[in-house]
Amino acid sequence: MEISGSRSFTLILAFLLLGFCSETCNAKDDTSAKSCTSSCGHIHNISYPFRLNHDPKYCGNVSHTLSCESNITVLDIPSSGKYYVQAINYNNNTIRLLDPGLANTNCSSMPQNIPPNPNLDPYGRYLSWSSTSIDYLMCSNPLNSSLYVDTAPCLNNTSSSSQPKTYSYVKVGGIEVWDLDEGCSAEWTAWTAWGLFYDGEDYSNVSYKDIHNALVYGFELDFRDFGIGCQGWMGLYASPCFPHTIPGASTLTKVITICS
């Protein structure tokens, strides 16, 4: 099979970068980076691969930089927004995050960020295997199904003289457009570590306050580290690291991953 010119060039460039990275990605000594420990607020175990933005440059991995804002540890995910770090578990490589729009004392509080999309992360740092999606629906007619949870009284159904009455629900576990009931639309989505609170598909005895409590607990992302040599570079699993400033580097990374 004849390989197209653009693909051939991509593969050639990939092999050249492989050779370059074999030297560059292993050039740094990771001893100092792994010896740093920082704290901010109630997060006392900020260590490799994480670091705070005011830590010495040799600490942690720059692609896992956190900030300390008003004594709150914050992770900024450009494709999504800023999140409050609730916990970091180095045993199972998870970081638990809270959307800043949610308040424990107010069940009408809503998440303000669109959940992070791992595909838009240039470093491929985080995955969402540990999280469950919560979808907010607005319907023109009431629903009678244990799959949906009424958000009242936290989020009231709306009606006015100029607009017809609408009903608000949430669906746990995600929903596809073709699964929506007639007259319903998906308004928002959020993530939570729902599996830690409830294991089942019948939500007839679950209230929205229960779901809101789970949202306030936060959601977990699985974090990945590609080693000190890939600081400021991209990489996936055991693939080489690439400078994210090189056009098409993310494509090269995927090509190498698929071919390896």
TrEMBL record:
Membrane topology: Single-pass membrane protein
Subcellular location: Membrane
UniProt KW keywords: Signal
Keyword Signal attributed: yes
GO molecular function, one term: polysaccharide binding
UniProt feature coiled coil, ranges: none
Chain ranges of the Wall-associated receptor kinase galacturonan-binding domain: 36-99
Record keyword Amino-acid biosynthesis present: no
GO CC annotations, alphabetized: membrane
Signal peptide bounds: 1-27
Predominant subcellular localization, coarse grouping: membrane
InterPro entries hit by this protein: WAK_GUB
Top-level taxon of the source organism: Eukaryota
Protein name in UniProt: Wall-associated receptor kinase galacturonan-binding domain-containing protein
Organism in which the protein naturally occurs: Malus domestica
